[in-house]
Structure formats: C-alpha cells, structure tokens
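can u do me a favor
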C-alpha cells in the first residue's frame, strides 16, 4: 500500500512538472504576435449575413495608419478609427484620441471577427491579390 502511494505521488509530481514545462511552451507558441508588416495592406470589413454592405480598409505602417472608407466603418463602430495595432490574439482599432474602439479576434489567417454590442458579427478579411 505504501509503495502504491509513493508511486502515485511520484507519478503525480512528474505529470505536474511535465505539464508545467510543456504547457508554457504550448501557450507561448499559440499567442505569437503577428508583425504589423504582415498585416499591412487591403482589407474588407462587413457585417455577417446576406448581402452585406462592404467597406474597404487599408492598414498602413506609417501615418495615417488607416485609410479607406472610414466613414462607412464608423457607422458600425460608432466612431471613426484612426489607428491600429496587432495583438497576440487579434487586432485593435483605435480612435483619434488613442482609445480602443474594438478588438477583432483572429479566427484564421486573414480573417478576424468581433461581436458588436447589438449582437451583429463584424468581419475583417484581407483582400486577396
């Protein structure tokens, strides 16, 4: 009985050490910050659903950081975006004052989504050349 207790205690300790070490590596790899250069370019934003209105957006590396149909986008967000930055799990759009307007969550490569307060899902996708 004591051997079983010692064996299970050692197994538990080894499993905990294994998960602690490899769990950190896995988490670190899953949240890698995408460099701004990889996201710069032409994008489209639209609400999910049938026949959506599509707004063009360009993510730029130099000021002004955003261009495109910003008035169209402001209609959905309630504020005109002026800046952007990547995050490990998505992309932030900021207003002229530097406050965060909305955070898009990365769904897959070149597709980001956010659920707005009104329940609609707003989609941001890269234009393919």
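np, heres the sequence
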């Amino acid at each position: 009985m004591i051997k079983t207790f010692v064996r299970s205690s050692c197994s538990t300790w080894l499993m905990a050490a294994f998960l602690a070490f490899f769990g950190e590596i896995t988490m670190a790899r899953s949240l890698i910050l995408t460099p701004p250069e990889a996201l710069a370019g032409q994008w489209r934003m639209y609400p999910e659903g049938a026949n959506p209105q599509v707004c063009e957006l360009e993510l730029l590396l130099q000021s002004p950081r955003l261009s495109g149909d910003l008035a169209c986008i402001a209609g959905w967000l309630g504020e005109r975006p002026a800046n952007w930055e990547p995050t490990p799990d998505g992309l932030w759009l900021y207003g002229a004052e530097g406050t965060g307007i909305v955070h898009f969550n990365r769904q897959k490569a070149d597709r980001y989504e956010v659920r707005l307060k009104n329940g609609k899902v707003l989609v941001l996708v890269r234009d393919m050349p």
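The longest strand covers residues 100-108. hope that helps!!
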